[in-house]
Design brief:
766 residues; alpha+beta; 18% strand
């Protein structure tokens, strides 16, 4: 679309204000100092500086151009000086302002677009984010206001034919981990935010923003919002449909003329100015308070079981499935009786065969009795039992690839953690109109529950893909901790330095400083805000801190970091009990039962010949290294327990493997006689087996959750959890091809491991 260069002269022109510009500059420099972490005084205000800056823009949208100018200058300075740590935070802040602020001059668009193109020469995540924003800028400059329209239409589920996409934030928390006070405070903020999410108001915001950005000086926007408020709902809906249709047509048709698009908006604007002179004067007297950006649609859920995630996502799709899909939801759900899937999927459904019918189904197309119909044709015309034709193997592959965490072919087995999205499209491009942004609040224990729910969802989808072709699911995590969680172990002398309750959030904060500044700071701030006395300003839409930060996170946190889910097989002392299987994401803690540390220490002092604490075990594991070579090793030792960590403790150890710390009991000799000492051995592995040789039993705790404890355990087997779709395809291939462990058929192209993606602002910054 050819667009004439125009200068902004809308209802609220951007006036050069030295005081406002100086205030913005101080705020931006404070943000950069916060990222450097050189000033401890800023630690108390982490997360507040960015929120305060954007709140100033919300109160005076016309000043957004001044902030964008400052941010562009700082971005260009960061590139010249090699301060890459500033680039992504500044760019996110700029784009968030650009969506809301009206009348951005063309020269600013050019400077930001040129800067994003320069990022394409840098490694990930800079090139990925630069490409994403360059595409948005190109679209916004061609059709001013389209980013705002698409964001509001999707987040508020405003029904229209031209842009039918919908988004919703599902916020889950565990009522056993967060107090009733905190849950009530979060629910109160969400309810307060819904006052600005009325469908009527949101459609008016989109109409006004589109007209203000499109026709600029040709309209009087001071009274437009009040005039729209006076219109009946059916007029507003009709006007909204026309505005969205005009914008989407201009955005998709590269050959469309910009002047033709403006004429379309002017016609819509003209139809609105049909009120009486008195109504226009009253509307002009009221004026327009600005066009806010409503917070996204958030639903708050107290998580009770792992099936709740699946149920909520299905309910999200229910209206679409009832009106636009051929298969009814009830019929689909009736067939989702999922049995436990063993490692070989022995009970997988048998192949079904369909008969291709040449019958049109129309009665008049049948031959008349007088016609001479061959006997073979008579047999063809008899309708067989109808079975829905199965989709092709290529369609199945595309669905399974898109629904799993990996994209495309199976990863090469490298130890380095996967992050960021792929710009490559799936083999068969699918149009998914719904996006579910699943956000969980809590510590590492709630992430363990999320991994269980995600694994259950993937099992269902591997059997029959219902959500995958219709819904895109993104995961977000906000750490919240009220008090130190109770430890699963009483072993004070074995492994004492492994007590971080939010390890995954701490890791994300290390690899993405902008996540640390904006999200990790909520860990202790949310409980603190929940205990503060309620005030009218606290529930005001303009002062909703928690909801505002979450909205910023889900809107701009588009770079996933992938975490390997591990499966553990447990063997019990009671031989009558069969092995149990479970999964974990963060930690497995194994401790010896019937062990009294204080008594053992006392015996060391009183006896020279003592019984050593711990149990004799045999370990079989594959030791991994940076060269990606695995060497199987076997060790026999005496131990009181071990801890397996799936999250690295620092950046230098960021490998996708288990860091196992084993408390080994070693005999020692001194002048007073024989004694023992505790030595912590550390190994890196992906697969490990441990078996007690003297039948002493252990207690196993998964993901630091006291509700997920197994007792009387004598052996464990830990390995990466396999993607259920891969397991199912491999089992089907094994029924027809005796190729051993070799992957054949669709299994060759599917991700092998189950990875849980958690979105952040930048992914992993090297």
């Amino acid at each position: 679309m050819d667009k004439a260069t125009t200068t902004f002269s809308g209802s609220s022109p951007a006036v050069e204000n030295p005081e406002v510009e100086s205030d913005f500059l101080r705020n931006v420099h404070a943000l950069l100092r916060e990222l450097d972490g050189h000033h401890p005084a800023f630690q108390r205000e982490q997360g507040m500086l960015r929120w305060t800056l954007h709140k100033k823009i919300d109160r005076n949208l016309s000043s957004g151009v001044l902030l964008i100018k400052i941010l562009v200058k700082e971005l260009e300075r960061a590139e010249r000086c090699g301060n890459r740590q500033y680039i992504i935070p500044l760019l996110h802040s700029l784009m968030y302002t650009l969506v809301k602020a009206p009348g951005i001059p063309d020269d600013l668009y050019e400077r930001v677009y040129d800067f994003c193109k320069k990022l394409l020469t840098l490694p990930k995540p800079y090139c990925s984010i630069g490409l994403h924003y360059a595409r948005q800028l190109k679209l916004e400059r061609r059709v001013p206001g389209i980013l705002y329209q698409r964001l509001v239409s999707a987040e508020q589920s405003l029904k229209n034919d031209s842009f039918p996409y919908q988004e919703k934030v599902f916020m889950f928390t565990d009522p056993d981990l967060l107090s009733e006070t905190v849950c009530r405070a979060i629910a109160t903020e969400i309810k307060a935010a819904q006052t600005s999410q009325c469908t009527r108001f949101c459609m008016i915001y989109v109409i006004e923003h589109a007209l203000q950005e499109g026709i600029k000086e040709h309209g009087d926007f001071r009274s437009l919002q009040a005039i729209l408020q006076a219109k009946p709902l059916d007029v507003i809906e009709d006007c909204f449909q026309k505005v969205v249709a005009a914008m989407e047509h201009a955005g998709r048709d590269m050959n469309a003329e910009y002047n033709q698009y403006v004429e379309e908006l002017e016609k819509i604007y003209g139809t609105l100015l049909t009120t009486s002179k008195k109504d226009e004067e009253e509307a002009a007297a009221e004026g327009s308070p600005g066009i806010p950006l409503p917070n996204p649609n958030i639903s708050f859920h107290l998580s009770t079981d792992e099936a709740q995630l699946w149920n909520e996502l299905v309910l999200f799709l229910r209206p679409q499935s009832q009106s636009c899909e051929e298969d009814s939801l009830g019929e689909v759900l009736e067939n989702f009786e999922i049995q436990d899937m063993g490692p070989d999927y022995d009970r997988c459904e048998q192949a079904r065969f369909s008969m291709l019918s040449t019958d049109s189904g129309i009665e008049r197309d049948l031959p008349t009795p007088e016609e001479d119909v061959p006997e073979a044709e008579h047999s063809r015309l008899q309708r067989k039992g109808g079975i829905k034709k199965r989709s092709s193997a290529l369609d199945c592959l595309s669905l399974l690839q898109t629904g799993s965490s990996g994209q495309g072919a199976k990863p090469a087995g490298k130890l380095h953690r996967k992050c960021g999205g792929s710009v490559m499209e799936p083999i068969a491009q699918m149009k998914r109109l719904h996006t579910a942004q699943v956000l969980v609040l809590g510590d590492d224990r709630v992430l363990g529950r999320l991994a269980q729910a995600y694994y259950s969802l993937r099992k269902r989808e591997s059997r029959r893909a219902y959500l995958t072709p219709r819904l895109k699911v993104q995961f977000y995590y906000v750490p919240v901790m009220e008090e130190q969680p109770s430890s699963c172990s009483t072993e004070e002398y074995a492994l004492t330095d492994l007590t971080e309750p939010c390890e995954l959030a701490a890791y994300l904060g290390r690899v993405d400083p902008w996540y640390e500044s904006n999200v990790s700071t909520l860990c202790h701030m949310i409980p603190k805000l929940a205990t503060m006395p309620s005030t009218p300003s606290k529930t005001s839409v303009s002062e909703l801190f928690i909801v505002d930060v979450i909205a910023y996170y889900v809107r701009l946190g588009l770079q996933p970091v992938y975490f390997q889910v591990y499966t553990v097989k447990l063997f019990f002392k009671n031989e009558g009990l069969g092995p149990a299987e479970d999964i974990f994401l963060v930690e497995l803690h194994l401790t010896l039962e019937e062990c009294d540390p204080s008594r053992d220490h006392l015996l060391v002092k009183k006896k020279t010949m003592i019984e050593l604490p711990g149990a004799d075990v045999t370990l079989v594991y594959k030791k991994v290294s940076l060269s990606n070579r695995e060497k199987e090793e076997t060790a026999s030792l005496r131990t009181t327990g071990l801890v397996m960590k799936a999250i690295p403790s620092n950046e230098t150890e960021d490998l996708v493997c288990l860091n196992v710390s084993i408390a080994e009991i070693v005999k020692t000799a001194n002048l007073s006689g024989r004694s023992y000492s505790v030595v912590t051995n550390k190994i890196r592995t992906r697969n490990i087996k441990m078996q007690s040789t003297d039948q002493r039993s252990f207690t196993v705790c998964l993901d630091k959750d006291s509700r997920r404890v197994y007792k009387n355990v004598t052996g464990i087997e830990v390995s990466p959890c396999l993607e259920p779709s891969y397991c199912l395809q491999k089992a089907k291939a094994r029924q027809t091809n005796l190729s051993g462990d070799e992957d054949v058929g669709l299994a060759k192209y599917l991700p092998k491991s189950l990875l849980l993606p958690i979105n952040t602002f930048a992914g992993i910054i090297q």
